[in-house]
User: Which sequence fits this backbone?
């Protein structure tokens, strides 16, 4: 599901990237690309990127008048009649419900006409004018700086929509029937999500065209004023922006005291350093203690607990002590009164995080474990003698 709405754009990007010729100054001038925006070539000022970064992260009520003006401009620019009706939604989740409820009444999707084709055509025009090197430089100085964070946020919103729809349908993904029902739900919802234009979360590629394309002006006005939107022949469904957004220094959703992302209708996503967590889990965090951490069976949630509580504090208060260390990690043992020992292996993820740091994981292993390598091997269903990874990720 992570590729959904980006599939067409990626295809266009690859096509346009291969179709370009060696641009030169004359082409650029003829295409109207030089001027006050950017630095007159493939570079762009930092103010442009900063402005679109702010658009992508904007919270608060939409500027509905500006957004609706942008919608009409985008339709006219695509050679289409203006939409007969504009319906506002409190979140992308509510918008999906509205789109479904409208059925055939809304007409066919015109996303390709108002968004995909203009973007692809303008990308090709600018690429041809600047040449491959100029385009690469322009993208590196603008959209590339925003791409990862906006794309990951959009992916999380799509996943959150599917989770909420599954909950509303009473789907239990842990059962065989529930898994089939979840797949059916994703298939059914896929087209609706593909019809969406991402509004403010299209900031990355809009940054690259800032001031360079009158044809994209309608899309830019919408993005600066509102959230996701669904363009159809007769109706546009468009969303308010979030009212709350919290991210860490790496741009990941992150908030330990409530929703990391929340829309005005209550649709919300909860996360700790990018990892989705249940809302009730965050409510519990301020009161956890070593005993609660030890009881948690979910390794990812236990890691969040340990990060929140603090590894040093946990080890100091839990009576843990390192008992072995090898190339696989460090083995810790916690004596438990009236119960079996808690034994954990401390391992470092070999893949760096976006900020360049390396995440520490704690693996709960059987109390009979004697070495760190034996414990890691056990998590893969192997014994210590046969566990020999060629590459760790």
Assistant:
């Amino acid at each position: 599901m992570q590729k959904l709405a980006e599939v067409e754009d990626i295809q266009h990007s690859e096509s346009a990237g291969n179709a370009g010729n060696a641009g030169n100054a004359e082409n650029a001038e003829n295409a109207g690309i030089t001027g006050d925006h950017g630095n007159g070539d493939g570079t762009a000022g930092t103010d442009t990127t900063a402005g679109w970064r702010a658009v992508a992260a904007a919270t608060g009520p939409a500027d509905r008048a500006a957004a609706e003006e942008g919608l009409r401009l985008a339709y006219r620019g695509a050679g289409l009649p203006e939409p007969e009706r504009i319906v506002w939604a409190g979140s992308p989740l509510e918008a999906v419900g509205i789109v479904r409820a409208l059925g055939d009444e809304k007409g066919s999707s015109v996303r390709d006409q108002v968004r995909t084709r203009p973007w692809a055509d303008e990308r090709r025009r600018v690429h041809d004018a600047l040449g491959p090197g100029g385009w690469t430089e322009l993208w590196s100085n603008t959209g590339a700086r925003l791409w990862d964070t906006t794309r990951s946020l959009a992916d999380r919103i799509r996943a959150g929509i599917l989770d909420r729809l599954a909950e509303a349908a009473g789907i239990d993904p842990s059962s065989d029937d529930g898994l089939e029902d979840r797949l059916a739900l994703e298939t059914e919802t896929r087209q609706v999500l593909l019809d969406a234009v991402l509004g403010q979360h299209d900031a990355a590629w809009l940054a690259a065209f800032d001031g360079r394309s009158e044809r994209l002006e309608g899309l830019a006005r919408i993005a600066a004023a509102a959230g996701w939107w669904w363009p159809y022949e007769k109706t546009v469904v468009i969303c308010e922006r979030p009212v709350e957004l919290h991210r860490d220094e790496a741009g990941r959703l992150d908030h330990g005291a409530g929703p990391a992302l929340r829309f005005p209708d209550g649709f919300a996503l909860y996360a700790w350093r990018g990892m989705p967590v249940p809302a009730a889990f965050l409510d519990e965090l301020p009161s956890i203690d070593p005993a609660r951490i030890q009881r948690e069976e979910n390794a990812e949630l236990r890691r969040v607990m340990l990060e929140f509580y603090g590894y040093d504090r946990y080890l100091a208060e839990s009576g843990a002590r390192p008992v072995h260390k090898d190339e696989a990690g460090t083995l810790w043992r916690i004596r438990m009164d009236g119960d079996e020992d808690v034994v954990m292996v401390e391992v470092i993820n070999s893949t760096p995080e976006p900020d360049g740091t390396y995440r520490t994981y704690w693996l709960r292993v059987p109390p009979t474990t004697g070495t760190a390598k034996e414990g890691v091997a056990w998590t893969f269903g192997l014994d210590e003698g046969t566990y020999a990874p060629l590459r760790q990720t």
About this structure: The first strand starts at residue 85 and ends at 89. Residues 254 and 271 are 5 Å apart (CA to CA).
